[in-house]
Design a protein that fits this description.
mainly alpha, 5 helices, transmembrane helix, transmembrane
Length: 175
C-alpha cells in the first residue's frame, strides 16, 4: 500500500509526461519553405484551377452528387482554410529568407571591410615602394654616370701618369 501512495505524494514533483511532442524547428521551416515555394508556382495554380472547375461542374451538373450546392459554401471554407495555412507558411518562409539574407549581408560587410583594409595596406606599401624607388639609382641615371666616367677616364689616366712621373722624379731627387 505505501508503494501506491509514493506516486501521489505532494512533496515530490510529478513525473514527466510520457507523451511529449517534440519537433525540429529547422525541419518544420524547410517543409514550410517547400510548401510556400510550391504555392507560388504555375503548377499549383493550374491544378487548383482544375480542382475548382471540377468542383463547380460536379456540383452544378451532377444532380445526384451535389454535396456543395450553388453558393459553394464548402468550397469557400476549403479556400479559407487553405489561405489560413498558406499565409503563415509564406510568412515563415519569408522570415527564414530574411534571416539568411541578414547573415549573408553581414558576411558581405565583413568581407568588404577586409578587402578595404587589404586595399589600404597595399596602397600604403605601393606608396612606400615608390618613395624607396625614388631614392634608388635608375638605369638611365647609371648609364649617364658611366658615360660621364668614360669621358673623364682618358683625362684621369693622363693626370695619373703625370703625377706618377712627378712622384718618381721627387723620389729620385730624394736619393
Amino acid at each position: 500500500m505505501p508503494e501506491l501512495l509514493t506516486h501521489r505524494r505532494l512533496d515530490l514533483p510529478r513525473p514527466p509526461h510520457r507523451f511529449t511532442v517534440s519537433f525540429d524547428p529547422e525541419l518544420f521551416g524547410q517543409i514550410s519553405e517547400r510548401i510556400a515555394r510550391f504555392l507560388g508556382t504555375g503548377k499549383f495554380l493550374f491544378w487548383m484551377t482544375v480542382f475548382v472547375i471540377f468542383w463547380i461542374a460536379v456540383n452544378l451538373f451532377a444532380v445526384g452528387l451535389q454535396w456543395d450546392p450553388y453558393p459553394f459554401i464548402l468550397l469557400n471554407l476549403a479556400f479559407s482554410t487553405q489561405a489560413s495555412y498558406a499565409a503563415p507558411l509564406i510568412l515563415l518562409a519569408q522570415n527564414r529568407q530574411d534571416d539568411r539574407d541578414r547573415v549573408s549581408l553581414e558576411e558581405d560587410r565583413i568581407r568588404a571591410a577586409q578587402t578595404k583594409a587589404d586595399t589600404d595596406y597595399l596602397a600604403r606599401e605601393l606608396a612606400a615602394l615608390r618613395l624607396a624607388i625614388g631614392e634608388v639609382a635608375t638605369r638611365d641615371y647609371l648609364r649617364g654616370e658611366l658615360d660621364r666616367l668614360r669621358e673623364e677616364v682618358p683625362g684621369l689616366r693622363s693626370e695619373v701618369e703625370k703625377r706618377r712621373i712627378r712622384t718618381s722624379f721627387r723620389d729620385a731627387d730624394d736619393i
